[in-house]
Amino acid sequence: MNDEIREGDYVLLYLDDKRTYMVRAESGKVLHTHKGFVRVDDLIGKEFGAHVKSNLGAEFIAFKPSIRDYILKSSRGTQIIYPKDIALIILFGNIQPGSHVVEAGTGTGALTTALATYVKPSGRVYSYEVRREFLEIARRNLERAGVLEYVELKNKDITLGIDESNVDSVVLDMATPWLIVPHAHRALKGSGTFISFSPTIDQVMKTVEELKINNFANVETIECLIRKIRVEKGKTRPETLMTGHTGYIVFARKASSRTL
Description:
This protein is α/β, with parallel strands linked by helices and 260 residues long. 23% of the residues lie in helices and 31% in strands. The radius of gyration is 21 Å and the shape is globular.
């Protein structure tokens, strides 16, 4: 049996591939759309996946929000990292339950949400951000996604140093990642992972050069492009528009500073 929607749960109301609405199931709440209104409290007690209709007869599906939904529907004050890039950061960074991760450039918490989801229940994300107003937005987004307890938000400039030690990964989404490389080497466990996301190739070149100077190995840079396929009988073809360049991701692993 599927989970039932309880009061206070977040629900993704799906109308079609282009229109979805994130709502919280609360008594008395009404969602107004161009297809009529939906009484949100009518969702309480229904199973996730149930069909509901607006007063005009438009049919919505009440989905349980995924990590991707929480990220794309988050409150924004900054450009977020796209799910396609987040997925590679998680995999290549070896982020898993129990990992301790230092993140810098919290922004409004999109990447933080994904990191926290994967390190729980015994791991921790230490997220550095110099803009206090962004941290407040991130706090709300993390709380909504149910992962705030796995994150320590830090209003600090990571270029001045990393407080933590013996961490599994350092993940950066900031303008000057190369300045953090020496700090990252000191903070990481042996074989720990360094990951940075940068929109320009100049940032990548400076970062890679600094990684090689600071005893990192297995250094690689990738770009992820994603294109949807329209699937219809007799009309299947790639979509005209695609999510192209968003940024470059640099990965590396900490090596010992001496040869045995």
